[in-house]
Specification:
The chain is mostly helical and about 290 residues long. The protein contains 14 helices and no strands. The protein has one domain. The protein is globular and about 55 Å long.
Length: about 290
C-alpha cells in the first residue's frame, strides 16, 4: 500500500489532537499547582491578553498588505483586516488548516493575483518570520550583533539555494516592499512575545521578558512543523524541549498555554460573530465563487 499524504494527514492530526487533549487533562488533574496558578489570573490580565491579540490581527493585516505590495497588488486596510480575520477562523476550525488556501483563492478571484507570485511573496514572509523567531530563540546564547550576522548569512544561503524558478519569481516582486514586510513581521513577533510575557507573568510572576523572548522563538518555530490547528501539541513539545534555553518549568508552560488557547479561541469566536453579524462572510464567499 503506497503512502498517501492526503489520506494519512487528517488521521495523524486527529491522533495528535486526542493525545494532546488527553495529556492536558491528565496533567491538569494530577498537578494542583496548575490549578492554583490559573486561579490567580485576574480578569484585567485576561482583558490585556485579548487586547494584545486584537493587535496581532492588525499586525497580520499589515503583513498581508506588505506581502501583496511585493506582488504590486493594493488592498484596503479594512479588506485586509477582514480577510485576515476570516482566514484565521478557517485555518483554526476548518479542515486541514485551509486558511492560506482560502486567502490565495480570494486574492486570485478578486484581485487577479497569480498563485505563483503569491506563493513567492508568502515564502518571503515565512523567511522573515522564521528568521526573527530563530533570533528570539537564540537571544540568550549569542550577542545581538552575532545574531544579525547569522541572519544575514542565512538569508544569503537561503536565496542561493532556491531553485532558479523560485528565484526568478522573487526577482519579479516589488522589492521596495521588502522593508515593510520585515517591519510588519517583526511587529507581529514582538506583539506575540508581549502576549506570552503577560500570560507567563500571570501564572509565574518571576518570569523575565528575556525568558519570554526565547519562549516566543520556540513557540513560533513549532508552526513550521505542525499538523494541528494553532500547532496544538507541537508548540507545547517545542517549549518543553527548549527548557534549557528559557528556563520555564513544565507547570508554568501548561498553565500559560491553557490561558493562551482559551483566549485565542474566544478571539476567533468574537471575530466570527462580528463577521456573520455584518454579513462580511457573504462578501468574501461571493468573491471566491465568482
Amino acid at each position: 500500500m503506497s503512502f498517501n499524504l492526503r489520506y494519512w494527514r487528517p488521521i495523524a492530526t486527529v491522533i495528535v489532537l486526542v493525545l494532546t487533549v488527553t495529556a492536558f487533562v491528565y496533567y491538569f488533574a494530577t498537578h494542583h499547582a496548575v490549578r492554583e496558578q490559573l486561579a490567580s489570573v485576574s480578569p484585567l490580565t485576561l482583558l490585556m491578553i485579548m487586547g494584545l491579540y486584537l493587535l496581532t490581527v492588525v499586525a497580520l493585516a499589515l503583513v498581508t498588505l506588505a506581502t501583496l505590495r511585493l506582488c504590486r497588488v493594493n488592498l484596503a486596510f479594512s479588506e485586509s483586516t477582514l480577510l485576515t480575520a476570516y482566514s484565521s477562523i478557517i485555518n483554526f476550525f476548518g479542515p486541514l488548516q485551509s486558511g492560506p488556501a482560502f486567502r490565495a483563492v480570494y486574492l486570485k478571484k478578486k484581485h487577479g493575483l497569480k498563485l505563483r507570485d503569491y506563493t513567492a511573496a508568502t515564502l518571503a514572509y515565512y523567511f522573515f518570520f522564521g528568521s526573527f523567531s530563530v533570533l528570539f530563540l537564540l537571544s540568550g546564547l549569542l550577542k545581538w550583533w552575532l545574531l544579525l550576522l547569522a541572519a544575514a548569512i542565512a538569508a544569503f544561503a537561503w536565496l542561493e539555494r532556491r531553485n532558479r524558478r523560485v528565484a526568478a519569481r522573487l526577482a519579479n516582486l516589488n522589492l521596495s516592499g521588502w522593508y515593510l514586510l520585515a517591519l510588519a513581521t517583526f511587529s507581529q513577533v514582538v506583539i506575540v512575545a508581549l502576549i506570552y510575557f503577560t500570560e507567563l507573568r500571570s501564572v509565574a510572576p518571576g518570569t523575565g521578558f528575556s525568558q519570554a523572548i526565547i519562549y516566543t522563538g520556540a513557540s513560533n518555530l513549532a508552526l513550521f512543523v505542525s499538523l494541528t490547528p494553532g500547532a496544538i501539541g507541537f508548540r507545547e513539545s517545542f517549549l518543553l524541549f527548549s527548557q534549557r534555553l528559557h528556563h520555564i518549568g513544565p507547570t508554568t508552560i501548561v498553565a500559560a498555554n491553557i490561558i493562551d488557547r482559551a483566549m485565542y479561541i474566544v478571539l476567533l469566536l468574537v471575530m466570527a460573530l462580528v463577521i456573520f453579524a455584518t454579513h462580511a462572510r457573504r462578501q468574501l464567499r461571493d468573491a471566491t465563487e465568482d
